[in-house]
Write a structure and sequence with these properties.
Protein name: Transglutaminase family protein
Number of domains: 2
Organism: Rhabdonatronobacter sediminivivens
Strand content: 35-45%
CATH architecture of the largest domain: Roll
InterPro entries: Bac_transglu_N, Papain-like_cys_pep_sf, Transglutaminase-like
Number of strands: 18
CATH topology of the largest domain: C8orf32 fold
Pfam family, one: Bact_transglu_N
CATH class of the largest domain: Alpha Beta
């Protein structure tokens, strides 16, 4: 697998000089047994004090503190990663979890907590009714079920790039029949949670080895997908936007319960509501 050179630049422009509040940056990739981080650089303009920490999910968080006034903010990260995930992964699922339904151990269930519970209100169970259509029989093969749900989401929802902030709820995405990669990831995560699976949302970068891949087409895009916890195999990556399973094309940066917890750059400024006049994001992923 290749060495990848990734750059990520976020620029804000303001109509008048403003005071910047603390900014929370989630830009450093998560190192796993399938990804090695060889180098990472972070540059901020204006200059800032940066403190690093890990959140409850083990993500690397940089908190940037600014002083003075500015009419622009630029956050730029550059990294080289060694992506060694296999193209055709084999998952060593524990015997007790090879068929659904299965029961997580008491320890796993406690640790998964909210990751295994739906996060959106569905009073009449519309989503759970839809997901039940993929469970042809009980018991059924666990991995095949998860693949079927991922493929079902892909078949139902058309990918559409959406630059505006925010994420659609899963029922909204189902009703509209289209969504961005983050909308599709939220729908899949919520779908498998209704069946009792532990799932987390992942944000990061997509390496476009094939022009057939969606969700990170062109400058200005990161990518979102889902990891599902299956005993024995651990966290298995599902990218329903591209109908793929495994991490061969994925560079994870942050993983969390809710999509709002994995935004690359969040912060505030003191000024008038209309002072933010422009925001631009540029992402490039290529072989080093």
């Amino acid at each position: 697998m290749p060495l990848l050179n990734i750059s990520h630049r976020t620029e804000y422009r303001y109509a008048a000089p403003v005071a910047l509040g603390p900014h929370r940056l989630m830009l450093r990739p998560r190192e796993t047994n399938e990804l090695r981080l060889l180098s990472f650089e972070l540059e901020l303009s204006p200059k800032a004090s940066v403190a690093w920490a890990h959140d409850v999910a083990g993500n690397s968080i940089a908190t940037a503190g600014f002083s003075g006034l500015t009419d622009a903010l630029v956050v730029e990260s550059r990294m080289i990663v060694d992506l060694i995930a296999p193209a055709w992964p084999v998952f060593d699922i524990a015997a007790a979890a090879q068929h659904y339904p299965f029961r997580y151990s008491d320890e796993d269930w406690i640790d998964l907590g909210a990751l295994a519970r739906p996060q959106y209100v569905d009073v009449v169970g519309r989503l759970s009714d839809w997901v039940e259509g993929f469970v042809m029989t009980r018991p059924t093969d666990t991995l095949s079920l998860l693949k079927d749900i991922s493929a079902g989401v892909s078949a139902r929802i058309n990918y559409q790039s959406r630059e505006v902030e925010g994420t659609q709820g899963p029922l909204e995405t189902l009703d509209r029949g289209w969504g961005s990669c983050r909308d599709i990831a939220v729908l899949f995560a919520e779908a498998v949670r209704t069946l009792g699976f532990g799932a987390r949302i992942v944000s990061g970068y997509l390496w476009i080895a094939s022009t057939k891949l969606l969700g990170s087409t062109g400058a200005g895009s990161t990518h979102a997908w889902v990891e599902v916890f299956v005993p024995g195999a651990g966290w298995i990556a599902f990218d329903p936007t591209n109908r793929s399973m495994g991490s061969a094309n994925l560079v994870p940066v942050a993983a969390a319960r809710h999509i709002s917890q994995v935004a690359p750059v969040t912060g505030s400024f003191q000024g008038q509501p209309g002072d933010l006049v422009a925001m631009k994001v540029e992402v490039a992923v290529g072989e080093a």
